[in-house]
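Q: Is it fine to ask for two folds in a single conversation?
A: Yes, each is treated on its own. Send the first.
Q: Here.
A: Result:
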Amino acid sequence: MRWDRLFEDLEAQLALDEVRGLESEVADRTRRERALLDVHTRLLANLDAPRAVLRLPGRVVAGRLVDVGPDWALVETAPNRPVLVALPAVRAVSGVGPGARTPSVVARRFGMGAALRAVSRDRAGVEVTDVDGQAATGTIDVVGADHLELAEHASDETRRTANVTGRLIVPFWSLGSVRRL
């Protein structure tokens, strides 16, 4: 009987060690998988989040998360008032849930340049804000490989040669947000 209890105790300890080992392995795999997540995949899992808050230096862009690219997010701050936010300018995000979603191959290639070309196609007036919070208004004339060129003019004027007061080149790495006027 004494031997039976000893073997039962040893079996219980072995089973407990196996459970602990499995729990440790699951925790390690979870940490490894989470380490591979980036902001893009986290935001993709939260499309249509009604109260996403993207904090940039000196300001906040808050609203419904409409779309996300590898280096940008589109936030509808009011009905039909989208703001294109450069993800490198984002300092923190709140108002989104857990989870992640892997982007498609096409979505991974639809970067800032493609998003800005879509904005510039209709020749609408925009407000371009850099990472320091400095804003300029005008019309995007050119979207290059790593920059945009803004024909500066007053927000209440259309882009006409007579209305253009200057040209501003904004590198993508210093871009904070672009808002249609």
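Q: Second one now.
A: Result:
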Amino acid sequence: MTWSRHRLHTGDEFRAVTRGGVRSARSHVVVHLTLLTQGGEAPRVGFVVSKKIGNAVVRNRVTRRLREIIRPRLATMPPGSALVLRALPGIDEQPFAALRADVDTGLETAERKLARRTEGAR
């Protein structure tokens, strides 16, 4: 799978998701979710892993782990949706299964919040 069509590229795209969408926080990750367009675009994903997490090696490892957790979920996300995962300190010490559970529950909660928001706007 090529990630280029699923990536958020610009700071404006990241800001649109984090400021305009819904948020769901877990112990080591914050999930931001929104609908950017109502069309048939592929879901888009971005990762925010700051220097508070660790050095470049640690940050890249965290990003790879988050990418692998999200990869199977892309098929179930609605078209035109955009997701930002923001890592919190301590994420590098989480076992993979616990991190997957955090991301999954955060994403499910964000999807419910977004569905309520879009239903209320109709």
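Q: Anything structural to flag on that second result?
A: Two points. The first helix runs from residue 11 to 20. The chain has one domain: 4-121.
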